[in-house]
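Dear colleagues,

As part of the handover before I leave the project, I'm documenting each prediction I ran so the next person doesn't have to rerun anything. This entry is a single chain, and its sequence is reproduced below.
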Amino acid sequence: MNWLLGWMRSTLGGKVVMAITGLLLVGFLLAHMAGNLLVFGGPAAVNAYAAYLKGSPVLLWGARLGLLTVFVLHVGLGLRLARQNRAARPDRYVKTATVEASLASRSMVLTGAMVAAFVVFHLLHFTVGAIQREHAVLSDRQGRHDVYSMVVLGFQNPLVSLAYVIAMLLLALHLSHGLHSFAQSLGFRHRRYTALLELLAPIVAALLAIGFLAVPMSVLLGFVSPPQ
């Protein structure tokens, strides 16, 4: 165990674990987005899906604890690597040579920190129910937690929807660089597919952002409304 912790503390080990945890988080985002899009299937689809998850507490809490571990590792190692990079060049250059560096690559720490803060807000909002509490205690006609109404009523608040829009744009910016930089961290970069990864990364990031924003934007535009 000591050797593993020592390896993770190294720059190489930290980058590898960052890449692996990042890919796991992207996999979760895809699954989470698919669950969110059930809103377009109506209250029955969303509430049945939520009831199924709550009816499998071992699976649900196992997934939550595993995801929390992955998330903490990713954020913690990201901050640690950023500190190591700054320590390696304590003197700022007279002229910053960032002409070739993209905005996404230069702002990885900032966008990552802001997305992490949003995750806390998101958990308080829809998981814990501490925000807009009146929506979190609703039940449907079958006595199930009315997740559909909670989501739709929540996004009818323009400020709440705006927070999600900003967060998803930041997430897309973060992923547009992270999705192709993981290959370098894992030693998979090659001229045959590096260019393809650099092309696909912003496309996948944009599709994720669009998928997540489809629900709040549809609610604000009146395409999705709470049940009567």
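The two ends are 56 Å apart (CA to CA). The CA atoms of residues 176 and 203 lie 8 Å apart.

All the best with the project,
I.
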